[in-house]
Structure formats: C-alpha cells, structure tokens
Amino acid sequence: MPDTIETAARAALAEVLPQDLPPDAIALDAEFDHLGLTSLNKVLFLTSVCDRTKVGLQHFTEHDLAAMRTLGQVVDALSRHAEVN
C-alpha cells in the first residue's frame, strides 16, 4: 500500500504546484514552502490525496496537518491510516 499512497500523493501534489513538475521529479523531502505550495493548495492537495487513498481527514488533527511539510511526511501519515477507512 505505501507505493500506492506515494504514487497518489505525488500525482495530487503535482496537480496543485505552481510550476509544472512531473510527479516522480518531486523529492520526498522537499519542503512544501520551497515548492511554492500555498496554504490553500496544501488543503486542496491533502483533501485530494485523502480521497484518492480512501484515508479520511478525520484521522488527523489540525496540528497533524500543519506538521506535514513534505511529501514524505504526508505519505508516512497516510500509510499509518491506510487500512482505517
């Protein structure tokens, strides 16, 4: 499942980035701020990736969501809840 989550997260992030990057060109440890992701686009990204992976946003507190600053952190967080729909 983590490969599927990573693939879904990369695709969702690539869709909201201001620059045109292919999903596999996004480093797992790249900070969202350095990628130019706005707070609105972060919300759109997280909502999209949760929908794609069937992981409900209710599993995360506001603090959890704010702490997710890289693609790798999002993938790790979603992986922990992937089987809890």
Task: Give a nutshell description of this structure.
The chain is mainly α and 85 residues long.
Explained architecture:
- This protein is mainly alpha-helical.
- It is 55% helix and 0% strand.
- Helix 1 (2-16) packs antiparallel against helix 2 and helix 1 packs across helix 4 (71-81).
- The longest helix is centred in the N-terminal third of the chain and has 15 residues, at 2-16.
- It is globular, with a radius of gyration of 12 Å.
- The two termini are 14 Å apart.
Model regions low in confidence, pLDDT < 50 over at least 5 residues: none
Average pLDDT confidence is: 91
Output the radius of gyration.
12 Å
Number of strands: 0
CATH topology: Non-ribosomal Peptide Synthetase Peptidyl Carrier Protein, Chain A
Question: Largest sheet, if any?
Answer: none
Count of helical segments? 4
User: N-to-C SSE series?
Assistant: HHHH
- What is the CATH architecture assignment? Orthogonal Bundle
Outline, from the CA principal axes? globular
InterPro entries: ACP-like_sf, PP-bd_ACP
Pfam family, one: PP-binding
Protein name: Carrier domain-containing protein
Domain Carrier: 10-78
